[in-house]
């Protein structure tokens, strides 16, 4: 598990390999990741959007941006946590993701960015 704290918001990431399948004539490697967002600050905050940079070992890069996470824009009171699981597909058995969440502090109305630490995605059968 990787973790990082930015401006009082702790991000923890756990990954899992979900298997392989063919899409068209190309093999795809499926990965799941569970993220826990913990508000360690003294203010209420809301996650408004996300940005991901996903890269595989064949040097293919995908950028994903959008509102919220899995259709939600969670509001976190001080001490609260929000966890969700999502996934991605790679065309190689190795890759990595990193990104950030855009958030707003309700006490100050200030927008800020929370870093999502780099985490690796690897199929266990391909690790030697």
UniProtKB/TrEMBL annotation:
It comes from the Bacteria. Residues 3-128 form the ApaG domain. Gene3D superfamilies: ApaG domain. This is Co2+/Mg2+ efflux protein ApaG. It comes from Aequorivita echinoideorum. The lineage of its organism: Bacteria, Pseudomonadati, Bacteroidota, Flavobacteriia, Flavobacteriales.
């Amino acid at each position: 598990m990787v973790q990082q704290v930015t401006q009082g918001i702790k991000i923890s990431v756990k990954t899992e390999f979900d298997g392989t399948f063919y899409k068209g004539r190309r093999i795809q490697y499926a990965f799941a990741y569970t993220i826990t967002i913990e508000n360690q600050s003294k203010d209420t905050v809301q996650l408004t959007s996300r940005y991901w940079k996903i890269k595989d070992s064949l040097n293919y890069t995908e950028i994903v941006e959008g509102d919220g996470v899995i259709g939600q824009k969670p509001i976190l009171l001080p001490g609260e946590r929000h966890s969700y699981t999502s996934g991605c597909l790679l065309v190689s058995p190795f890759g990595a993701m990193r990104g950030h969440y855009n958030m707003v502090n309700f006490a100050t109305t200030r927008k800020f960015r929370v870093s999502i630490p780099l985490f690796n995605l690897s199929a266990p059968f391909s690790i030697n």
